[in-house]
Amino acid sequence: MPNEYEVELFRTAGFQRKTCPSCKTPYWTQGDPPTCGETPCKEYDFLGHSPMKRPLPLRAMREEFLSFFESKGHTRIKRYPIVARWRDDVFFTQASVYPFQPYVIDGVVDPPANPLCISQPCARFNDVDNVGRSGEHFTMFEMLAHHAFNRKNKEIYWTDRTVELCHEFFTDRLGVEGKLLTYKESLWEGGGNSGPCLEVILGGAEVATLVFMQYKDANGNRIPMETRVVDTGYGLERLTWVSQATPSAYEAVFGDMLTYIKRAIGAMKIDDRVLGEYSKVAGMTKIDSFADVRAIRQQTAQRLGLSVEELMSIVLPLESAYAVLDHARTLMMVLADGVVPSNSREGYFARLLVRRGMRAFRTLDIDMKLTDLVTLFVQMYMEDFPEVFANRTDILRLLDVEQRRYEETLRKGRDTVRRVEVELKGRGAAQIDADALVELYDSHGLPPEIVKEFAEMPVDVPDDFFTRVASRHALVAPKEAKVHAWSGTPPPSKLRVYEDMKKQKFFAKVLAVEGTGVVLDQTFFYPEGGGQEADHGTIRGYDVIDVQQIGESVVHFFTVTPSNLVVGKRVKCEIDWDRRQRLKRHHTATHITLGAARKVLGNHVWQSGAHKGEDEARLDITHFDALTADEVRKIERLANDIVLSDRKIITKFVPRELAERKYGFRLYQGGSVPGAKLRVVEIPDWDIEACGGTHCARTSEAGLIKILRTTRIQDGVDRLEYVAGAAALEHVQRESESLAAVRERLGVPANQVAEAVGQLQEEVRELRKRAEISDRRTLETALKEGAEASTKVLPLGDRTVEVHVSRVGAARLWQGTVNPGNAGDLKRLAATIIQEGGNVVAFAARNGSGSVLIARSVDVALDCLAIARTAAAELGGGGGGAADFAQGGGPNVDRVGEALATAVSNIRDALG
Ligand SMILES: [Zn+2]
Ligand SMILES: [Zn+2]
Question: How large a percentage of the chain has pLDDT more than 70?
Answer without folding.
Answer: 98
